[in-house]
Amino acid sequence: MTVPATEARGACRAADGRLARARRVRLTGTGRPAWSALVVLIAAIVCIPVVAVLVEALASVGDSAWPRGLGEMVVTTVALLAAVALGTTVLGVGLAWLVTAYDFPGRRWLSWLLVLPLAMPAYVLGFLVLSTFGPAGGPARAARATVGTSGFVEWLSGPLGAPVVLSLTLYPYVYLLSRAAFRGQGQVTWDAARMLGASPWRAFRQVLLPLARPAIAGGLAVVMMETLTDFATVQYFTVRTVSVGVYLTWKGSFDFASAAQLSVLVLAFAVLVLTGERILRGGARYDARGGHRPPAAPTVLTGAARWWAAAAAWSVLLLAFVLPVARLVWWAVTATAADSSSLSTGRFAMNLANSGVMAALAALACVGLALVVTHGVRVTGGRLARAAAQLTTFGYAVPGAVIGIGVLVAFAALDGWLEALGVAGGTGLVVTGSVLGILASYVVRFLAPAYQAVDASFATISPSVTNSAFSLGSSPWRVLRRVHLPLSRSGIAVALVLVAVDAVKELPLVLLLRPFGFTTLSVSVYELANENFWEQAALPALLIVALAIVPVYFLVRQVRLAEPHRQELS
Amino acid sequence: MTSEATVGRDATPDDARETHVGARTAYETNDTGAQRDPALALRTVSKSYGDTPAVCELDLAVEAGEIVALIGPSGCGKSTLLRLVAGLERPDAGEVRVGDATVAGRGAWVPPEKRRVGLVFQEHALFPHLTVGDNIRFGLAGVARAEQDARVRKVLELVHLPHTVDRYPHELSGGEQQRIALARSLAPRPEVVLLDEPFSSLDESLRARVRTDTVDALRATGTTAILVTHDQTEALTVGDRIGVMRAGVVEQLGTPAEVFERPVSRFVASFMGDADFLPVVADEHGLMSELGRVMVRTDVDAREAEVVVRPHEVALTLTLPADGGDGVARARAVVERVEYHGAFVLHTVRLPSGRTVRSWQPHSVRYPVGTEVVASIQPGLVPSLLVGDHTLPTPD
């Protein structure tokens, strides 16, 4: 039987209008509306705090006066952001350039060790700087004894200490991104510029720096978001940013309207930072096409330059990580030796348990939701689910103060509804604070890293594996349980660790939302440091730093795997 | 028929089919109906991605137990068609029927896991964390354990790999993985199995062997199958019928011989095998080409017509009466290129008009380049005639 050719092309074109209408009705791939709805719901939950803050602030416009000293807070915030941006750019770009272009003793080790300060929370380095360079610290006493004045040492324990501490802990973001830019296309362009007769300095300034601009802008954006989120460290140094304002307003008056209005200001700063990044990056998206070729050999430094370079790089690592850790170890040992019972009994064990439970719950919640989102995107294949999944990562860019107040406002609204339904007192969670609130804020903030890790694992599962499972009669739940879950185990493990460590490290959200008397490791560090019990703060701080090294290790491994290596000539 | 194939055939008596409890509840088959439905039917199915139509008002019916090979250039819509049947895409319009149930269209939608449609992918897509046995058992949820074991054994025997039951996919060769993927898709006794270029990831040397095994297994179980391929030889050797697709429509659907010998269009003629096109002139008896008389018809406008000649239809002779036996004198052609293909030798000859045609000669015949030969159509063969882009139905 031979079927003659169909003259269907014209008919098909005529049907186009009909087809277009059919498409508009159905936005979700092959459909599985339940899964699309689930992903959208999770995305909505992540957005609740921001929406709640905006609604609350809008609803109370004009009702409450702006807190006193608002202008000063804004100026302080701008100044702090600018100072930290400057500090991290100098350290990050400078060090990246040094380890990429030049060879000096320890270069190969340093290029990775310089990422370590990421594991040092600013609130830990902060109290170390405060204790060391304060009026009672060793350097100040020595200065007074020798030259009679200690002002030139003590400025570090004043407001200027804040940008120094933040720069030393945050520069690795800029370092990593600009190093990647220099290694990638940068290397090829650098060679070309040098071949055309440009001096190293001119090649750096006129060719490499503009090329690395998008990468530097990206790193700076992360740095400034972290700076904006912090309202604990800066208080050591009596710096009052807008985020500090939110915290103090809430803790001082428990006034939603004022706190929400200030939070909107913090949010505005965040939007400004992200807009700034867009502008700095320009339309330029320099493709790292050269990134697939190994970099050329760095210039081998000789003579004094060799030692200056080594000294500069090593001293940053010493100041930002090695010396602080050494100090923590020393204090932890002496404090434990003085009172060894404090380890097993007392508050340390309690705080450790609290941190552990919170981290475990946060990790399970975030990774569970991340799995649902990733799996949902895979099984629906729809644009709607994909867009919603993208939205779930947005919490990572929302400053902690905004999330915290947003969660509180949302809980208050929930209480209102519950009371309206006849439940006296509602959940009773708002004013007393609650562990549930902390967990909710953790989910909003840490869903992004969990999603990214799980999603990376899913990317290695071929769509035909998923489709095979369906064609063999499996429901979406069974595909998740029997195929996707076992095949993304490594990503799930990484996500659990990342979220757990982030949760242990997190300070501002816990400070803002914790119930009375509820203390975690990070809160105990902060409280003890504020009361100048530095020796006692050392052990929990050390534990946090040790845990925080794990995700830094993951990060370094990931970067190393991604970049090509020069064949070592034997 | 081999003994293994006989074993396989035993695997699908109708009573065994009835014991399947999996997704059968989604729609009950009605075997007592007066007229049996085709195993798979697409009716005016359309699917576009954005503004690009991938499948246009396509009709296709596959009979039970039939193997249809779909072939076409990339982007012709053949993979989209498979995805529509499998339930991985929803049609914008039209209807997809599996057995006697509508699975898409007319307001119905049956998700892939309830369609009883098996899938075999180019990259095999075995579950890497499960053994071969567990891979096959995956599709047998709801079947009693003893029955599961029996089915695993049977399908593994069917593909000649019973010893691999406890191995993991990464311990198997590419060809073995492909056969396991087939076994896995057959185990739940699907209504239709879809194979998406299943052999193209295999080495050339392995491909023919795995292909034969696959077809044997499909035939032994009486499975209805659609095989998508871009390899003409594969389509011609595997398919009971071949569907040649272009721009979202099936341009020709027919047996391999029909598609090869009676292509309906210029596209099918040139896509399915080599073909040269020569102009014709009309005389009082019909149409003449440079290779001789091609058709005894006078109702065709010779200015728009061309004859399709395949290399096996062109005879080359050294000495022939200058008139080719049809009373028309012909000038000599010159051998321009000779390619040795093993069993056959491909000669390219330049005709007096300057056009070239190709001719297969047995491997013992090898005219040196520059030899003057007479090219004519093999006696007894009737080449197709194109008018515009479509061929005339030939009287035979």
From TrEMBL, chain A:
Main location: membrane
Membrane topology: Multi-pass membrane protein
Signal peptide start and end residues: none
Domain of life: Bacteria
Keyword Cell inner membrane: yes
Assigned keywords, A-Z: Cell inner membrane, Cell membrane, Membrane, Transmembrane, Transmembrane helix, Transport
A Pfam cross-reference name: BPD_transp_1
PROSITE patterns documented for this protein: ABC_TM1
Membrane as UniProt keyword: yes
ABC transmembrane type-1 domain residues: 74-275, 352-555
Record localization: Cell inner membrane; Cell membrane
Membrane-spanning intervals of the chain: 34-55, 75-98, 110-130, 160-182, 256-275, 307-332, 352-373, 394-414, 420-444, 491-513, 533-556
A Gene Ontology cellular-component term: plasma membrane
Alphabetical GO biological process terms: transmembrane transport
InterPro entries membership: MetI-like, MetI-like_sf
Assigned protein family: Belongs to the binding-protein-dependent transport system permease family.
Name of the protein this chain belongs to: Iron(III) transport system permease protein
Automatic annotation (TrEMBL), chain B:
Organism: Knoellia remsis
Record Pfam families: ABC_tran, TOBE_2
Record-given protein name: ABC-type quaternary amine transporter
Compositional bias annotation for Basic and acidic residues: 11-21
Domain ABC transporter: start-end pairs: 40-272
Keyword tags: ATP-binding, Cell membrane, Ion transport, Iron, Iron transport, Membrane, Nucleotide-binding, Transport
Domain of life: Bacteria
GO MF, any single term: ATP binding
SMART domains assigned: AAA
Gene Ontology cellular component list: ATP-binding cassette (ABC) transporter complex
InterPro entries: AAA+_ATPase, ABC_SmlMolc_Importer, ABC_transporter-like_ATP-bd, ABC_transporter-like_CS, ABC_transpr_FbpC, Mo/tungstate-bd_C_term_dom, P-loop_NTPase, Transp-assoc_OB_typ2
Annotated region (Disordered), positions in chain: 1-35
Lineage: Bacteria, Bacillati, Actinomycetota, Actinomycetes, Micrococcales
Enzyme Commission no: 7.6.2.9
